[in-house]
Amino acid sequence: MLTRARLAGRDELAGIPWLASLQADERNRVTADLQVVEIDPGEVLCRVGRPATFWFGVIDGLLKMSNDSLQGIPITFTGIPPGGWFGEGTVLKREPYRYNIEALRRSLVAGLGVDTFHWLVDRSIPFNRFITQQLNERLGQFIAAREIDRMSDPDARVARSLAALFHPVLYPGVGEILRITQLELGYLVGLSRQRVNEALQRMQEAGVIRIEYGGVRVLDLQALRAYRQP
C-alpha cells in the first residue's frame, strides 16, 4: 500500500480541518510528510496487532472499524465517512491496533507519520485542542455504539447508526447528505440490505430523512437520533 502512496495535493490539503490552525512551519512539515493513497473495497488499512505508523483521515469514501468477539463473531464499531480522522489514541500510546479498518468502497485516505504527529502534540496548542476534542467525541460515540448493540428495534439501530455518521465534529466532510448505499449501511449495522431499506422507508415517511440517488439526506438530525419504529 505504501508503494502506491503520494504526497497530498492542494485540494486534498484544503479539506483537512485541523491544518489551517497550525503555524507556517508546522504546516510545512505536515505537507511534506502527509501522504494519500487509494484503497479498494475490502482492502484492510489497519489490522489488529500491527504497529501504528500513521494517523489516518478519510478524504473520500467510506471505511469500517471492526473487530472479532471472543467467539469469532465480527463486531462493527463504527463507519468512518469523509472528513473523519481516527486512531489518535493508538498513535498517542504507540501501541498496536486493537481494531481493523476496512474499505467498504474505493476510498482516498490520508496518513500523517507517527513522528510528525507527536511533534505536533509537543508544540501546537490548536492541534492538541483538536485531538482532545476528537478523543472526547469518540468516547461519546462508542458509548452510543454500545447502546445500539443492545437495541432490539432494528429501525432504531439503523437510525442511530446513520445519525452517528452525521456527527458534525468527527465527520465535518459529510454535511447534510451522506453518500452511502443500503448495502454499505447494512454492513455497518449488521442487518440485511432489505431490512435496512424497510427502516429507511419508514424514516422517510416520518419526515426524518430523504432517500436520494446514491445517498441519504438528513432532514431532522435530532429526530433521527431519537427515532424508534412506529
What does this structure look like?
The protein has 230 residues and is α+β, with helices and mostly antiparallel strands. It folds into two domains: 2-146, Jelly Rolls; 152-225, Winged helix-like DNA-binding domain superfamily/Winged helix DNA-binding domain (Arc Repressor Mutant, subunit A). It has helices at residues 10-14, 24-33, 88-93, 114-123, 125-149, 154-164, 182-189, 193-205, 221-225; strands at residues 6-7, 35-39, 44-46, 54-60, 63-68, 74-80, 85-86, 100-103, 107-113, 177-178, 209-212, 215-218. The strands form three sheets. The chain has a five-stranded antiparallel sheet with strand order 1-2-9-4-7. It has a four-stranded antiparallel sheet with strand order 3-8-5-6, covered by helices on one side. A hairpin with a 2-residue loop joins strand 11 and strand 12 (215-218). Helix 5 (125-149) runs antiparallel to helix 6, helix 6 (154-164) packs across helix 8 and helix 7 crosses helix 8 (193-205). It starts with 5 loop residues before the first strand and ends in a 5-residue tail after the last helix. The mean pLDDT is 90.
Shape summary: globular
The helix-strand sequence is EHHEEEEEEHEEHHHEHHEEH
Query: Which structural class do the helices and strands define?
Result: alpha+beta
Strand line-up across the major sheet: 1-2-9-4-7
CATH architecture of the largest domain: Sandwich
Mean of the pLDDT scores? 90
Cα-atom radius of gyration: 18 Å
| The CATH H-level homologous superfamily of the largest domain | Jelly Rolls
Per DSSP E runs of 2 or more residues, the count of β-strands stands at 12
Largest sheet: 5 strands, antiparallel
Number of domains: 2
DSSP helix count?
A: 9
Under the CATH scheme, which class of the largest domain?
Mainly Beta
Low confidence ranges: none
